[in-house]
Specification:
- Strand 23 and strand 24 form a beta hairpin.
- By secondary structure, this protein is mainly β.
- It contains 12 helices and 50 strands.
- The N terminus is likely disordered.
- The protein has a 22-stranded antiparallel beta barrel. A 5-stranded mixed beta sheet has the order 11-16-17-14-15. Strands 1, 2, 5 and 8 form a 4-stranded mixed beta sheet that branches.
């Protein structure tokens, strides 16, 4: 009897992945085994309808196969195909056509120019418009681009792909948020975050939106496009439209991927030998150490034993491990003539690189549209998302500083809480049983219902009622031997918060054409309101660690309870006119009035007008013979947007309870909160002028857009500092001005297209300059807050480091009270002394880049697709923590390995000499040592995919398997950053990640 061996696949995620791969291969082999039919030779000619001539270079492809050819210089072709085959005729700039072969042996085809690029509908505020008729600066991103980079948050997938939109990840944790700025920072005290609108519902973030559900994302950047949103438009608008159902045969999509993540770049610390060397040098400086014989003078008994045994701990390798991500999405699109439904189920799970850092997100979406008759339509878009999150208290800060000598476990195998018997707790303490737990549960409901009436041609009334409900619970437990408690009493904390946001919009749209004149009028009313409440309860010294943060009433010590509530609303009215003459001259006029409860009485209402003009030069008669130009449009806009983005009650004075005592009796007292109310606080206003050019060449083979803008923000809601003698700290006042100026460029090109090969390139470039124009007093800086007229909002104000005093500069150093090996800074006024008033200045460079951009190349060869996406942020200065992590004394903490410290034998200009008698905090000009050029270029994404051929006999309508890698390579301008990922700009907790993803897309 023949015996067969087999491999048992374990029931793990890796096993499931392998099963999926085997299933894909089996399906692939099944498809390849299909029988072929008898072929017939077909000849023919392809012509152009607009040129009234033959069309050379057109592609002729047998549908569902790799068999194809191209027309010759006379527009003729020859191809072999079966009688039941379908031929697909296509060419750049033309609408493809399909023809069933049947018994034909000669086929004549005329292709029509494809103007869908300009006819493409773009979502704008409270409506849509054809791309050709856009007058403002709006960029649209379709679902294919979003799905190209697998990510939890759709914004992360398009980083660098939208000119003018700066997107960075907060850190590498599984629950990390995304930072986004549209055309820089305008405000100092109010929010600079854009507004997100999902199917008409406003929201502050899109962390819970499943990227597979998105049909398109529109970024509204200039005042003309954002003015319709008034008070919310100052920082830009992001409109997200999710997928809708369609009539016809139901379609099912199944998308899944599994990925592994690892630390991208992370700064290493000194190992045991290197730590011993620097501590010896620090004590050699003071004369306490001269040779190894003096080690007992500077190391304790346990440290000496560890040195003798070669015992040292690499805490980073023990804490950091590979993480993983997995995503499973099922979408169903169905419908009939009246009712159309789109439904999706999605699961996303991620385990971070640190223990206890993970997230699980479950999402259900249902979009329904129902047509009652020719003039009544209704529907809803609803999503429910649930997140289970676990948050890790960052152990790396301690791991990077603790003395590396010693062992993790003692000779009995027991965990050593305090290594070397010192006062520093082990960075691994939280990973021990029953020591630490920090878990959150978040439920979000985002829903919108609408009723649409079209009683007569051209008129449309739509009422939308949307809600965004968020419930969050976070529970924290820290035992006595946790990192945070460090031997103190255990602590438990329970936090719960609820928010309820509603927006009700009533919108009228009326369109009318009179000969060469086209009018589109929009009028609307809008009401938004948010209520939120929260409660915090905590206690200490729990009797049973297993209770975690439950049963707080059993905690015997320091039980405290606090709660809060806030409510605000805005009422708005707006009108917009879109006018077109002969489709060549376009005008958009908008005005909006907003009343915000958050502002002071008498200052609640403001008006936000805008005007935009566009000239479609390409439609002029003198352009008709310029065949190379397929699109040329000039745009000019001006508008005002507002910002009331201070917290609720930010203009009011409030009282805060403080404990007091008279003798031995307790007494409750009250004092003003640190923020003083201002009854005159009003709107912050931003005026933007935008000039844009849209250009298309060679039948849109190359498309380019350029925008130049100037934004002036006045009446800043500035948190002005007050004298301590006033008893308060700050007050919001409408004082100060800022400006933002910049240029944005986006270029798309189709470099090659034939029957087998297609190569597309996308380039984006953004340059933005933000500047403070004035503050409290015209022309006067606010040094205390770090604000300087003529400079960006965030700058580095410090001494200018020249290097390190060298041995041959001993006499000059002595004039400044220093010695060789100390930090040398510039004497700005040459008075032979260094002081904070005269010798500090705004250093060159700031934490905003000079420019950023991306370059994406996508190549498709037959059924293989390959893309590589490069992203760069250039000209930013950062002050990373690790460059300042240097213990000159080397007494109680470790230092970063990159530290190149000065010694008489190593006369570097980087870092001062180790000195056991001087700590870093007491070292002169210590703050100057960390500034570095943070410019970088990275391979943001690299993907390789294969689409299997599909025929009528195939099980799937489409099947694609792919591999994708994110953040694979990073190149930094400064050598100091060889071990650091500069995207986050300085922090070290939760390192940034690189990801390797394998996925599959199926369609039924």
């Amino acid at each position: 009897m023949m015996k067969y061996s087999y491999i048992k696949i374990p029931p793990s995620s890796g096993g499931r992945l392998l099963k999926t791969a085997l299933f894909v291969i089996a399906c692939f082999m099944l498809i390849l085994s299909e029988l072929s039919a008898q072929n017939t030779t077909i000849t023919g000619t392809v012509k152009s309808s607009d040129l009234d001539d033959v069309l050379p270079g057109a592609t002729v492809l047998v549908k569902g196969t790799n068999i194809g050819t191209a027309t010759n210089i006379d527009g003729k072709f020859t191809i072999s195909a079966a009688a039941d085959a379908t031929l697909v005729f296509s060419s750049i700039g033309y609408i493809p056509q399909e023809v069933k072969v049947g018994n034909q042996t000669s086929i004549q085809i005329t292709l029509t120019p494809d103007i869908t690029n300009m006819e493409e509908v773009v979502v704008i505020g409270y409506g849509t418009v054809k791309k050709r008729d856009l007058t403002g600066a709006v960029t649209s991103v379709k679902s294919e681009e979003i799905r190209q980079v697998p990510a939890q948050n759709p914004l992360e997938s398009i980083q660098g792909k939208i000119a003018g939109v700066d997107i960075t990840r907060g850190n590498g944790s599984s629950s990390s948020g995304i930072n986004i700025r549209i055309r820089g920072n305008r405000s100092i005290g109010a929010s600079n975050n854009p507004l997100f609108i999902v199917d008409g519902v406003q929201t502050g973030s899109i962390d819970n939106i499943n990227p597979n559900d998105i049909e398109s994302m529109e970024f509204l950047k200039d005042a003309s496009s954002t003015a319709i949103y008034g008070w919310q438009g100052a920082n830009g608008i992001v409109i997200i439209t999710t997928k809708k159902g369609s009539s016809g045969k139901p379609s099912v999509t199944l998308n899944s991927y599994y990925g592994v993540s690892e630390v991208s770049r992370y700064p290493s610390v000194l190992n045991g030998d290197e730590y011993v060397a620097i501590k010896r040098e620090a004590n050699r400086t003071t004369g306490k150490w001269n040779s190894v014989a003096d080690d007992p003078l500077i190391f304790n008994t346990q440290e000496l034993a560890a040195i003798a045994n070669g015992d040292w701990i690499d805490y980073q390798s023990l804490l950091l491990s590979n993480g993983n991500q997995q995503n499973y999405n099922l979408g169903v699109n169905s419908g009939g003539d009246r009712t159309k439904v789109y439904t999706s189920l999605d699961f996303y799970g991620e385990n971070g690189i640190l223990k206890f850092d993970n997230v699980k997100r479950y999402t259900l979406r249902t979009n329904v549209d129902h047509t009652f008759n020719s003039w009544i339509k209704a529907g809803m878009q609803a999503q429910v998302a649930n997140r289970d999150e676990s948050y890790r208290r960052d152990p790396l800060n301690m791991a990077n500083k603790i003395i590396p000598l010693g062992t993790v476990y003692d000779e009995n195998g027991d965990f050593i809480v305090y290594p070397l018997g010192g006062s520093s707790i082990s960075p691994l303490a939280d990973e021990q049983p029953d020591i630490f737990s920090n878990k959150g549960k978040i439920t979000n409901v985002l829903a919108n219902v609408y009723l649409e009436l079209k009683p007569f041609e051209g008129f449309n009334f739509r009422t939308n009622f949307g809600t965004n409900i968020n419930n969050t619970r976070v529970g924290l437990f820290e035992a006595s031997n946790s990192i945070s408690r460090n031997g103190g009493t255990s602590r438990a904390q329970y936090t719960a918060s609820n928010s309820r946001f509603i927006n009700w919009d009533n919108v009228i749209n009326y369109q009318k054409e009179i000969k060469d004149h086209s009018f589109a009028i929009t009028a609307l009313s809008s009401f938004v309101q948010e209520e939120s409440d929260n409660v915090l309860a905590q206690g200490e010294n729990q009797l049973l660690p297993g209770q975690l943060f439950f049963g707080l009433g059993n905690a015997p010590d320091n039980i405290s309870i606090n709660s809060g509530f806030s409510k605000w609303n805005v009422l708005s009215f707006a009108a917009r006119l879109n006018y077109s003459y002969k489709g060549k001259y376009l005008i958009t006029l908008t005005d909006r009035a907003d009343g915000a409860s958050r502002l002071s009485k008498g200052n609640k209402w403001a008006y936000f007008p805008s005007a935009a003009f566009a000239w479609r030069v390409v439609d002029e008669n003198f352009m008709q013979n310029v065949a190379a130009v397929s699109e040329l449009k000039l745009r000019l806009s001006y508008g005002v947007a507002g910002n009331s983005g201070i917290k609720a009650y930010g203009t009011q004075s409030s009282l805060t309870r403080i404990p007091m005592a008279f003798g031995e009796s307790s007494f409750q007292g009250f004092t003003f909160s640190p923020l003083l109310g201002n009854p005159d606080a009003g709107w912050e206003l931003s005026e933007t002028t935008n000039f844009g050019i849209d250009l298309g060449l060679w039948r849109s083979r190359i498309n380019a857009t350029m925008d130049i803008y100037d934004t002036r923000t006045s009446d800043l809601l500035l948190p002005r500092g007050l004298p301590p003698t006033s008893g308060v700290q700050q007050v919001y006042q409408n004082i100060g001005k800022t400006k933002n100026q910049g240029v944005e460029i986006g270029i798309n090109s189709l470099n090659i297209e034939n029957e087998n090969l297609q190569w597309e390139t996308t380039l984006t470039f953004t340059r933005n300059r933000e500047e403070i124009v004035s503050l409290v007093t015209e022309g006067v800086d606010d040094i205390g807050n770090g604000w300087f007229v003529g400079q960006p909002i965030s700058v580095f104000y410090d001494y200018e480091k020249l290097g390190i005093w060298q041995t041959n500069e001993a006499d000059e150093a002595a004039v400044y009270g220093q010695v060789p090996g100390d930090i040398k800074v510039k004497d700005q006024n040459g008075d032979m002394k260094i002081d904070a008033v005269n010798d500090r200045r705004v250093l060159a460079g700031n934490n905003r880049p000079d420019w950023f951009g991306g370059l994406n190349n996508k190549v498709t060869y037959k059924r293989i697709d390959f893309s590589v996406y490069l992203f760069a942020r250039w000209g930013q200065t950062i002050d990373p923590d690790f460059l300042g992590r240097y213990d000159r004394q080397s007494n109680l903490s470790n230092s970063t390995k990159v530290i190149d410290y000065w010694t008489p034998e190593n006369p570097t200009n980087e870092y001062p000499r180790p000195n056991a008698g001087v700590s870093g905090s007491s070292t002169l000009y210590w703050s100057t040592i960390g500034y570095v050029d943070g410019s970088y270029l990275r391979v943001r994404n690299l993907s390789l995919g294969y689409t299997l051929p599909s025929t009528d006999k195939s099980i799937f309508s489409n099947m694609r398997i792919y591999f994708s890698g994110s953040n694979l390579f990073t190149f930094t301008k400064s050598k100091k950053l060889d071990e650091y990922d500069p995207e986050r700009g300085g922090g070290e907790s939760y390192p940034m990640l690189k990801n390797y993803v394998f996925g599959i897309n199926l369609g039924f």
